[in-house]
Write a structure and sequence with these properties.
With 236 residues, this protein is an alpha+beta fold. The chain folds into 2 domains: 76 residues, no CATH class; 125 residues, Chitinase A, domain 3 (Roll), CATH 3.10.50. β1 and β2 form a beta hairpin.
Length: 236
Amino acid sequence: MKHAKVVLAIMGMTILLLSCSADKPASKAPEVTTFEQKISYVFGREIGQSFRETPTKIDLDVFMLGIQDAMNQRPSLISAEEEEKTKEEFSAKMQEEQSKRLAAAAEKNQKDEESFLEKNKSQQGIVTTASGLQYQILQEGTGAAIKETDRVKVHYRGTLIDGTEFDSSYNRNQPAVFDVGGVIPGWTEGLQLMKIGGKYRLWIPSKLAYGARGAGKAIGPNTLLIFEVEPLEVVN
C-alpha cells in the first residue's frame, strides 16, 4: 500500500511539472539544463523505474492522456468510484508482489545461511554453540567478564555473507552503548562469552537476529549477520 501511494504521489507531482508541455507532440529529446527541466527529468525517471517494478503493465499513451485531461480540466473517463476501486486493486497487486518477493528472498537467504554455517563450522578456530551461534576469538580480553545485566560500550562492524557492510561504529568513530540483555539474542549470547578488551567475530544465524521479518532494506528476511565485536568497558 505504501509503495503504491508513493508511486501515485510522484505521478501527481509530475502532472504539475508537465503542465506547460502536456499537450505538445513528441519530438526530439529536449535539452536538460534548467532546474525545471532537471527536476522534471528526475521525476520522469523515478516514475519510469516505478513502472518497471509494478506488477501491472502501464499503457504510456493512456497515462499521458490522463495527464493531459487533468491539466486541461477535462472530465475523467472513469468515475470516482471506479478510480478508487482501481487504486485499491493496484495496491493489492503491489502487496501480493511484495509478499512473493519477500518469500523468495527468505527461502534463498535461508539456504545460503545453512550452507555457509555448515562450511564455516569446520574452519580452524570457529566454535559453534548449542544455539547455533558461531564465533572466533580474534583477541582474548583481560578485563571483567560480561554479564547479561551489564550495560556496555562496544565498537563493532556488521557485514552480510557477501561482505556488504551495513553498520559500523568504527566508521562513525562513536562506540555504541547498550544493555547486554536488550539487543538481538546473538549479541546477548556472544557478549557473555567475552571479557572487556577482547575482540570476537560472531556469525549470528537469522533465528538469533531479525528472523523472517528482516530489518529495513539492508537486512532481508532470514539473513545471517556477521559482526566483529570489541567491548570497551562496562558502564553500569
